[in-house]
Amino acid sequence: MYKNKGLTMFELIFTMLIITIIAVIAIPSIQSMLQTQEAQSIQSNFPLLIKEARNQSLLTRNDTVICGSSNKQTCTGDWSQHVIAFIDNNENGQHDSNEAIFSSDSPNLKYGNLKWKGLGQKPYIRMQSENGLPNGSNGSLIYCGQENIYHRQVILARSGRIDASRDTNRDGIYEQANGQPINCN
Predict the structure, then answer these.
(1) pTM, whole model, 2 decimals?
(2) HEC string for the chain
(3) Which CATH superfamily is domain 36-164 in?
C-alpha cells in the first residue's frame, strides 16, 4: 500500500507560523545591530583617515585636504557618498586634476548620513604642511542614524587631537563634548 510522506495542511501552516514569529522577532534586532555597526565604523575609520592626511602633509610638505565627494574626484560636500583625501598643491580646497588623491573611502551608508561641521563653515578639512595640524579646520564629523541612539560624532580639535563621542551617562545616547546629546538637525 502506498503511504503519503508529505506534510498535512495543518503541519505546513503551523511551520509557516513558527517561521514568521521567529522572523518578526529577529529582523529588528538584526537591523539594530547593522545600524550600530555602521555608526561604529565611522568612529573607527575616520580618525585613521585624519592621521593619514596628517602624515601625508608632513611627508610631502604640502597641505592635504579631506572632503566629501559625490563622484570621488571633486569636493562636493557630500560626505555620505565618498570621502577623498588629496595633496592640495595650490591650497584652494578643491581637488584639481594635477593633485594626487592618496586615500578614498566610500562609507556605503544604508541607515544614516554623514556631515562635516567645521570652523567657518568650510566643507573640508585642511592639514597644514608645516606641522600637520588642522588649519582652521577643526570641527566635527557627525553621523546621523535613523534614531538618536545611533548618532555618533568624531571631533577634530585645533590641536589635532581626535576624539570620538561617548555615552558618558550610559543612557544609550552618545553625547557631544559638552555633554549634550548629538544634534542632527
Answers:
(1) 0.83
(2) CCCCCCCCHHHHHHHHHHHHHHHHHHHHHHHHHHHHHHHHHHHHHHHHHHHHHHHHHHHHCCCEEEEEECCCCCCCCCCCCEEEEEECCCCCCCCCCCCCEEEEECCCCCCCEEEEEEHHHCCEEEECCCCCCECCCCEEEEEECCCHHHCEEEEECCCCCEEECECCCCCCCCECCCCCECCCC
(3) minor pseudopilin epsh domain (3.55.40.10)
